[in-house]
C-alpha cells in the first residue's frame, strides 16, 4: 500500500472518531436524555432543609430523612394533621358573647346553613376539607354532660370517603409554656367504629409538633355513655400554639362536653411524653389568637338565633 493510501486511511479514521465524539457529546447535553426502556429512575439525594411547608389539611411528615414518622401510626385519622375549616368565625377576644337558649322541645338541628347552632370559638377540623360532606358537626341539646348543650360529630354515611372529623379550638400557648397541665374532656359515643378520641397538639412558631395526645390506643369505641377522660402532659417552653378538642375516627356518633385545662404540679405523673420523631403542620400565627381556652362548656352559640 502506498504512503498516500495510508495517510488517507488515517485521515478518514480520525474524521470518523471526531464525528462520533461530537455526536456522543450532543446526546448527553441537558434536555437530550433518553431513558432506556425498563431502566430504574435516578436516585434522589436527600438534603437537610428548613422545615417544609405544607398545604392546609396536609400532613408534612414527608420531607427529609431527618423527619421521621410521628408517634402515631396513621396520620390520616390520628389528628396530627387536622386543620380547621368551616363553621362560624370566632369573634375577636373581648367581644360581647351571648348565651343562646336551647330550642323548644330539645333536639338538634342540621339545616346546613347559619341557623344551625354551633359552639362559639370552636372550629370544625379535618385532614381534608372534602371530609365535611360526610360528617355533621353541630351543637346538640338532646344530650349533655352538664348544662344545656354539647357538641355532636356524626358520620352521614357508613364509610366516609375521607375518614376522620373533629371539633377543635386553636389558641395561644403563652400561658401554658413550660407548664404541666391536665386535659379533661367528657365523651359519649354511639356505634363509633373504630372509635373517638380527645385531641391535643402544641406546636412551635415553625409549625413543629412539640406535644401531642390522642388517647391512642385507648380510643372510645362502640356505644359508651358519658364519661370523663383526662391526661397529663408537659407543654414545652417553645410552644406558641395549642389545639384542643376531640375527633371521630371514622363512622358513628361522638358527643363532647365540658373541656378543661388545669395546671398541675411536677409531682403528678405525665400520661405521655413528647412525640417521637419530627412532624410539621402549617404555621399558625399566635398573635391573633385568644390567650386561653374559650367557651369550654359549649354553652355559647353561633348561628342559633332566638329560641323557637
Instruction: Return the average pLDDT rounded to an integer.
Output: 75
Structural class of the helices, strands and pairings?
Answer: mainly beta
Q: Largest sheet at a glance?
A: 10 strands, antiparallel
Ends apart, CA distance between termini: 116 Å
Structural description of this entry:
This protein has about 300 residues and is mainly beta. Helix content is about 10%, strand content about 30%. It has 2 helices and 12 strands; from the N terminus they run ααββββββββββββ. The strands form 2 sheets. Strands 1, 3, 4, 5, 6, 7, 8, 9, 10 and 11 form a 10-stranded antiparallel β-sheet that branches. Strand 7 and strand 8 form a beta hairpin. The radius of gyration is 29 Å and the shape is elongated.
Task: List the topology elements.
Elements: H1 3-27, H2 75-78, E1 83-85, E2 118-119, E3 123-126, E4 135-140, E5 150-155, E6 165-172, E7 180-203, E8 209-213, E9 220-234, E10 241-248, E11 251-263, E12 301-302
Antiparallel strand pairs: 1-3, 2-12, 3-6, 4-5, 5-11, 6-10, 7-8, 7-9, 7-10, 7-11
